[in-house]
Structures are given as structure tokens and as C-alpha cells.
């Protein structure tokens, strides 16, 4: 495996330390994982473009917060991509906490960029962690800043992109599970790579949990389950279990061992996806974004060629705000009338002094 470089700096006053993850074992994704990623069709991605909204509840049924997930087409670094944004906010033991993940992915779920923000506001103190990763010059650059009270810890690491083939992150895993749920199957021996809390490369696997019945909105729903396990070099593996409706909407999500469960309270509207007519496929969205950028560039060029436009509009707004007329349209007509002196006068317009 190609080696990563990492710097770890903890700042408290003037103190600092350096170190890095102990990456002694080589981890790579399986051929089945690469085949799965390359088999994703644009039509499948289109079916994944919608939002989910769940509520977090305790074992006793107490409402602790909410979980929202949005998947949409976007553009990053001049290329069409898929944006995944997940947010969870709430309070545990009366301590506010939350996580926000925003990821930009290619159509085969390669991670272009991802930003993760976690916080916990404790009594008398707080913890705030931000982690950002982005592809740049053939490297995956990762920077993390953790604030715990007055202590600030900074970590920076870079991996060759070639060492992270089949990388699945927090953001991309949410879209990957939607795809699995829509297909209702997952090939055996499909093993991806991920990064643990210390930025070590580890394995992550997804498997089917099959169908079960789930109570929601006073009724019984048939849902399909997907289990995600993030293995670790030194710690116990972390396991999440998610169940989906037939159309891919998330019905429940929980981390095994956690007292908190995300559950669907209201069935998604059947007309929700009809509002996404503009984004019927990636090609149409890409063309729309290209045309939008062309129009913006054309307008900007015209304004640069005619600087008098900005001066004219600025003078008009200044006069408008000074006079504050009741009839803005009439005022505008009278203000700009002298600029039309090269045209024959309109007999229906009576010029007045301003």
C-alpha cells in the first residue's frame, strides 16, 4: 500500500505533539465492490433523488431530535455530481448535540469532497469537531479540527487516491444503502474500504437483512433491511442497521448498541418526486447547469463592456431612496425620460421636473 502522510498537532497554550495512525495492515476493496460501483446506472441515481425526514426517539419513546437526508444533483469543480446532505440535531440527557455531513460524489459514488461537523454542548464545556476531505492533485487531503473546551487538536493527512479505491464515507454510505434497498440485493463478499476515527484505512461491508414488518403511522409497513459494518484495527466494529420502504425511502436507522433510534413518523408524499421534473437525468441536469453558466458569463461580459450601466442604476436608486415616491413606476418613467431624447416624444407622457 502507498503510504499516507499525517501531522497531528494538539494546541493548549504553546504545547504541541505529533504522530500518526499505525497502518500496518493493507486494506483494499474487493472486485465485487468495484463491479457494484461501475454498474450504477443514471436511472438508478434518479430514483435516489429525494429527501427523507425521521425523528430520533429513546428506548422509552421520548422524542430526542430529528434526522434529515437530502440527495440531489449538483455541480462541483466544473463537473456534474451528486450531493448528499444529512443532518441530525437533538439533545441527549439535556445536552444539545448534532451532526451535519455534506458529500459530493461522482455517478459511481467516488468521493470528490466531503465535510463533516459534529458537536456536543456539555454543561460547562463543549466538543466541536470538523473534518474536511477533498481530492486534489491525485491525493485525498483530509483536515480535522477538534475543539474540546480550550484545547484545540488539529490533524492533517493525505492518501494517494489510488490507495482509496472503493472508499465509502459517511456521506456516500447513505446513498449506497439507498441503491442497495432499491435493488433489494447485495452481492456476497462485497467489501469496501473506509477510514476510522484515527484515519486508518479499514474495511466496511454491507449485507442484506431481508424483509420485516415495521409499525408506522398506526399501520404496518413491509420494509427491507441493510446492515453496514465498519471494521477496525484496534477497536470493536461499528454496526448500523437501516430499513427502507419499497421506493427507497428510509423507514428506520439505528446504531447497534445505541439507545437512540431514527424512525419514520409520516409516509412521504407520493407527489414528492413529481416536483423533480427538471432533474429527470444527469445529462439534462448537466446541460442545464452548462447553459446557466454560459448565460451568467455572457451577462458579466456585457456589464464589463458597459460600465455606465452600473453608474446609471446606482444614480437611479439614490434618487429613488431620496425622494421615496409613492408611485415608483411613474417616478422611473420620468427619471429615464431624458435618456430617450433620441426617440420621438410620446404624446401620452407629460414630463415633469424632478
What structural class results from the helix and strand content? alpha+beta
Estimate the helix proportion, in percent. Answer: 10-25%
* Counted beta strands: 15
Q: Compute the gyration radius: what is it?
A: 27 Å
Please tell me the total number of domains: 1
Distance between the termini: 77 Å
Approximate strand percentage: 35-45%
Instruction: Round the mean pLDDT to the nearest integer and report it.
Output: 82
Extract low-pLDDT stretches: 8-20, 271-280, 349-354
Biggest sheet, open or closed, and with what strands and sense?
15 strands, antiparallel
Number of helices: 6
- Taken from the alpha-carbon principal axes, the silhouette is globular
> Order of strands side by side in the largest beta sheet?
1-9-8-7-6-5-4-3-2-15-14-13-12-11-10
SSE order: EHHEEEEEEEEHEEEEEEHHH
In short:
Helix content is 22%, strand content 41%.
Question: What keyword list fits this structure?
Answer:
354 residues; alpha+beta; 15-stranded antiparallel β-sheet; 6 helices; 22% helix; 41% strand; globular; disordered C terminus; Ciliogenesis-associated TTC17-interacting protein; CATIP_N; cytoskeleton; DD_CATIP; cilium biogenesis/degradation
Characterize the structure shown.
This protein has 354 residues and is of the alpha+beta class. The protein has one domain. Helices cover 22% and strands 41% of the residues. It has helices at residues 31-38, 42-47, 170-183, 282-305, 308-323, 328-336, and strands spanning 5-11, 51-57, 63-76, 79-92, 95-105, 111-122, 125-136, 139-148, 151-160, 191-195, 201-216, 219-230, 238-244, 250-255, 261-263. The protein has a 15-stranded antiparallel sheet. The model is unreliable at 8-20, 271-280 and 349-354 (pLDDT under 50).
Amino acid at each position: 500500500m502507498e503510504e499516507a502522510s499525517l501531522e497531528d498537532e494538539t494546541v493548549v497554550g504553546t504545547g504541541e505533539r505529533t504522530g500518526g495512525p499505525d497502518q500496518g495492515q493493507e486494506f483494499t476493496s474487493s472486485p465485487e465492490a468495484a463491479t457494484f460501483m461501475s454498474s450504477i446506472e443514471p436511472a438508478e441515481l434518479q430514483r435516489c433523488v429525494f429527501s427523507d425526514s425521521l425523528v430520533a426517539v429513546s428506548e422509552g419513546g421520548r422524542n430526542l431530535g430529528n434526522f434529515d437526508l437530502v440527495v440531489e444533483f449538483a455541480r462541483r469543480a466544473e463537473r456534474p455530481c451528486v450531493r448528499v446532505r444529512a443532518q441530525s440535531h437533538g439533545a441527549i440527557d439535556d445536552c444539545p448535540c448534532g451532526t451535519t455531513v455534506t458529500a459530493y460524489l461522482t455517478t459511481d459514488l467516488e468521493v470528490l469532497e466531503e465535510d463533516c461537523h459534529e458537536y456536543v454542548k456539555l454543561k460547562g464545556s463543549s466538543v466541536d469537531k470538523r473534518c474536511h476531505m477533498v481530492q486534489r492533485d491525485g491525493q485525498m487531503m483530509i483536515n480535522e479540527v477538534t475543539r474540546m473546551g480550550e484545547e484545540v487538536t488539529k490533524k492533517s493527512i493525505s492518501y494517494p487516491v489510488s490507495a482509496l479505491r472503493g472508499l465509502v464515507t459517511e456521506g456516500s454510505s447513505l446513498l449506497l444503502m439507498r441503491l442497495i434497498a432499491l435493488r433489494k440485493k447485495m452481492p456476497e463478499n462485497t467489501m469496501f474500504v473506509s477510514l476510522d476515527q484515527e484515519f486508518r484505512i479499514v474495511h466496511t461491508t454491507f449485507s442484506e437483512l431481508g424483509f420485516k414488518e415495521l409499525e408506522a403511522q398506526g399501520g404496518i409497513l413491509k420494509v427491507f433491511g441493510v446492515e453496514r459494518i465498519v471494521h477496525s484495527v484496534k477497536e470493536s466494529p461499528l454496526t448500523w442497521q437501516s430499513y427502507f420502504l419499497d421506493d427507497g425511502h428510509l423507514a428506520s436507522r439505528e446504531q447497534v448498541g445505541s439507545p437512540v433510534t431514527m424512525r419514520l413518523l409520516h409516509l412521504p408524499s407520493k407527489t414528492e418526486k413529481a416536483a423533480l421534473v427538471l432533474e429527470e437525468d444527469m445529462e439534462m441536469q448537466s446541460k442545464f447547469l452548462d447553459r446557466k453558466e454560459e448565460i451568467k458569463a455572457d451577462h458579466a461580459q456585457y456589464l464589463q463592456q458597459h460600465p455606465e450601466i452600473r453608474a446609471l442604476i446606482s444614480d437611479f436608486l439614490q434618487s429613488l431612496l431620496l425622494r421615496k415616491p409613492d408611485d415608483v413606476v411613474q417616478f422611473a418613467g420620468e427619471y429615464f425620460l431624458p435618456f430617450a431624447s433620441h426617440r420621438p416624444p410620446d404624446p401620452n407622457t407629460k414630463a415633469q421636473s424632478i
